[in-house]
Design a protein that fits this description.
By secondary structure, the chain is mainly α. The protein has two domains: about 1-200 and about 415-439, SecY subunit domain (Preprotein translocase SecY subunit); about 210-405, SecY subunit domain (Preprotein translocase SecY subunit). Helix content is about 70%, strand content about 5%. Strands 2-1-3 form a three-stranded antiparallel β-sheet. A hairpin with a 2-residue loop joins strand 1 (about 235-250) and strand 2 (about 250-265). Helix 6 packs across helix 8 (about 110-145), helix 10 crosses helix 17 and helix 12 crosses helix 14 (about 320-345). The protein is globular, with a radius of gyration of 24 Å. The chain starts with 6 loop residues before the first helix and ends with a helix.
Length: about 450
């Protein structure tokens, strides 16, 4: 595993980007779309009781996880309260269906047009999922007294508004991807987490007056987590590749050789498995809120399900949530990494380009060798992501600072998106300097 250094160089790339008009426009466009997102996140829905809403979020950490994807919009119960979570859920469903359904698998292999078609299906699926989740959130808030009860028409208007808010955020994300810098949906989530940091720090200060030692422990763990995230995000294994080509110049034949390497990342899947696993862990508890017995009545199975899938449930019952979360992150890491590896089709690409790995025969032996290598190094990335997933539980037990138990996931997303965006900025700079050199 090799770590790539040069963070100051990437930071310098950001400053250099503002000296180029094209990149400056892209960066300013991205910032402008984030400003629009934050404006939308503060447009409230009608009938909301802010005081009751704040009390709900203080005692329910499951809603805190949902709020992570909405970038704080759910805490205000605005029209963007669901964030891009329904789109992420739709993406998960399509990722699972593409390898299983033959027509979708064939469509995904048709190049750019096929991928656009699959993406279109994902957008269509987002709308009904957003409507269902919007109704679930509205029913939950009404059951907790945070939103006033209303008739069918106002309920329909709220659901349509929330669905439109999600679709609008997905559109903003795609605009950022097309005209800005970085992955738009990830940057939307990134912007929401960063915007919620001041409030989190304020709550941490309140907690620190009561548990200063625990807060110090949490701060140290946070710094170590950031360092580990950078190491595992940048870590990769280099696979040497030799090229042998035959070139004809006039009547003579020349053999040209060269060498390079394939950088196989330790964490190829990035932060996606963590988001996938969190999305599925949220779903049962959210669904159970429909059928749970109100407070004061005998609990039913839905109440038990809410207890199992609540990250704040104390031990020993709460251990079920974190163990299942750990296992799901590991499983999703391997699944998503293999999906990416198959889409890259490295073995056949090398064979078409006349490349080969020294000591490995071209064709299927090369594919098997690369699969074995990436499976081995993915264990490191999978276990690291799973450790980050359960870190809130570990820190809570050690430091007893409950207000910050969701920060490890946020740190991973923030650091991962920041590194990826900075690399894209640097790549854009390199490309333009190369074009300028050719001119």
């Amino acid at each position: 595993m090799q770590q790539v250094s040069g963070r100051p160089r990437l930071i310098q790339a950001l400053f250099d980007a503002f000296s180029l008009p094209d990149l400056r426009r892209r960066l300013l466009f991205t910032i402008g779309m984030l400003v629009v997102f934050r404006f939308i996140a503060h447009v409230p829905l009608p009938g909301v009781d802010p005081q009751a809403l704040q009390e709900i979020f203080e005692r329910n950490q499951l809603l805190g996880m949902l709020d992570l994807f909405s970038g704080g919009a759910m805490r205000n119960f605005s029209i963007a309260a669901m964030g891009v979570y329904p789109y992420i859920t739709a993406s998960i469903v399509m990722q699972l269906l593409v390898p299983v359904v033959p027509k979708l698998r064939a469509l995904s292999q048709e190049g750019e047009s096929g991928r656009r078609r699959v993406n279109q299906f994902t957008h269509w699926l987002t709308i009904p999922l957003a409507a269902l989740q919007g109704y679930a959130q509205l029913a939950l808030m009404r059951s907790q007294g945070a939103v006033a009860a209303a008739g069918a028409l106002p309920t329909l208007a709220v659901i349509v508004s929330m669905t439109a808010g999600t679709v609008f955020l997905v559109w903003l994300g795609e605009l950022i991807t097309e005209r800005g810098i970085g992955n738009g949906v990830s940057i939307i989530i990134f912007g929401g987490i960063v915007a919620s940091l001041p409030e989190m720090v304020g709550r941490a200060g309140i907690a620190g007056t009561q548990n200063l030692v625990g807060l110090i422990v949490f701060g140290i763990v946070g710094l170590v987590t950031v360092a580990l995230i950078v190491i595992f995000t940048e870590g990769h294994r280099r696979i040497p590749v030799q090229y042998a080509r035959t070139a004809f110049r006039g009547a003579r034949m020349y053999r040209q050789t060269g060498s390079t390497h394939i950088p196989l990342r330790v964490n190829t899947a990035g932060m996606i498995p963590l988001i996938f696993a969190m999305s599925l862990m949220i779903f049962p508890g959210t669904l159970a809120t429909y059928f749970a017995s109100p407070a004061g009545q005998d609990p039913n199975f839905a109440n038990t399900l809410m207890t199992w899938f609540n990250p704040s449930t104390p031990l020993p019952v709460g251990l079920f949530y974190w163990v299942l979360y750990f296992v799901m992150v590991v499983a999703f890491t391997f699944f998503y990494t293999m999906v990416i590896f198959e889409q890259m089709d490295l073995g056949r690409t090398l064979q078409r380009q006349g490349g080969f790995i020294p000591g490995v025969r071209p064709g299927k032996p090369t594919i098997d060798y690369l699969s074995k290598v990436i499976s081995g190094i993915t264990w490191g990335g999978a276990l690291f992501l799973a450790f980050v997933a359960v870190l809130p539980f570990l820190v809570r037990e050690v430091s007893d600072v409950g207000v910050l138990t969701l920060s490890s996931t946020g740190i991973l997303i923030v650091v991962g998106v920041a590194l990826d965006t900075m690399k894209q900025v640097e790549a854009q700079l390199t490309m333009r300097r190369y074009e300028g050199f050719l001119k």
